[in-house]
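Design job #97: recover the sequence.
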């Protein structure tokens, strides 16, 4: 497969999208932005909802690959997750099929396996084929996206790398993130590898930097050609001084891989508290 050049970036106005708009062009990509919100600095962006199938097809047409970041990125009422993440991702794959796009990189999440117990010391790294245990409707939508990707590979020959991103922010902001942080620069390295590796079929990988406190297996990502260069450990002293060490036994927010997603009441709790 020739290296893709024109890449549709959905979710271009979001946190990761904004970072990738800066970090991916030096790898030789021409990015086309798509988002329901205006994309600052991208006057040519397609500003549309993932439910707008016509707009999606226009956006997808003529691209070589898609980096699919758009969607709800935290827990939300099921109906909202259904529309943006489940139906929206289906609409995207249908647009790709109709327009002949052969490679998608899907932003999955650690929350697809969020109820995996935090591994004890000296436990083996969590493999990508660990049973899926979504911690939210949000995490469940990422399981759907991974299965959809498998279906479109098996049935239509569209290749996908599903990247179960840990925490992709400029810096880690919790002791949990010391394990799952993916620096923006490593994110760009991983997305580039996922866009260009040969014969990926549907491959699921974890997405993080080479953190000293890593809890999952990066071998599948490395097999794509990903070579992480960052390690969150340089942030550890300050975070541990502020928050204490990770405490899976004593702190419910540390008991599972998904962290506080497994314990925090869904964010609509205040609005609909009588029904909870
Ligand atoms: P974000 O919430 O900052 O960005 C998501 C973007 O998608 C926003 O610009 C939003 O306007 C757009 N969007 C939402 N619904 C849409 C719709 N129906 N139609 C069109 N656009 C829509 O999220 P972030 O942090 O940039 O994450 C990007 C992707 O990576 C998301 O899919 C998220 O689930 C995934 N991810 C991110 C992680 C992180 O640490 N930042 C960790 C794990 C997964
Ligand atoms: C995610 O999936 C979210 O989109 C992101 O905002 C972070 O909360 C991240 O997971 C995380 O687990 O830290």
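Job complete. Output follows.
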């Amino acid at each position: 497969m020739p290296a893709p050049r024109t890449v549709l970036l959905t979710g271009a106005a979001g946190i990761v999208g904004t970072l990738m708009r800066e970090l991916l062009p030096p790898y030789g990509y021409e990015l086309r932005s798509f988002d329901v919100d205006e994309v600052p600095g991208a006057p040519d962006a397609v500003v549309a909802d993932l439910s707008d199938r016509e707009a999606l097809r226009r956006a997808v047409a003529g691209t070589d690959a898609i980096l699919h970041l758009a969607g709800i990125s935290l827990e939300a009422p099921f109906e909202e997750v259904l529309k943006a993440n489940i139906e929206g991702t289906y609409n995207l794959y249908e647009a790709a099929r109709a327009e002949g796009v052969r490679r998608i990189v899907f932003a999955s999440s650690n929350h697809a396996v969020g109820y995996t117990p935090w591994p004890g010391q000296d436990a083996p790294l969590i493999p990508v084929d660990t049973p899926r245990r979504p911690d939210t409707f949000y995490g469940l939508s990422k399981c759907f996206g991974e299965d959809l990707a498998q279906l479109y590979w098996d049935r239509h020959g569209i290749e996908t790398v599903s990247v179960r991103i840990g925490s992709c922010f400029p810096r880690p902001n919790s002791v949990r993130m010391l394990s799952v942080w993916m620096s923006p620069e490593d994110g760009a390295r991983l997305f580039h590898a996922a866009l260009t590796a040969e014969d990926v079929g549907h491959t699921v990988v974890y997405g993080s930097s080479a953190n000293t406190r890593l809890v999952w297996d990066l071998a599948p990502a490395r097999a794509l050609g990903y070579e992480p260069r960052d390690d969150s450990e340089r942030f550890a002293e300050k975070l541990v001084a502020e928050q204490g060490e990770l405490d899976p036994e004593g702190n419910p927010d540390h008991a599972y891989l998904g962290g506080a997603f497994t314990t925090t009441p869904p964010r609509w709790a205040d609005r609909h508290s009588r029904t909870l």
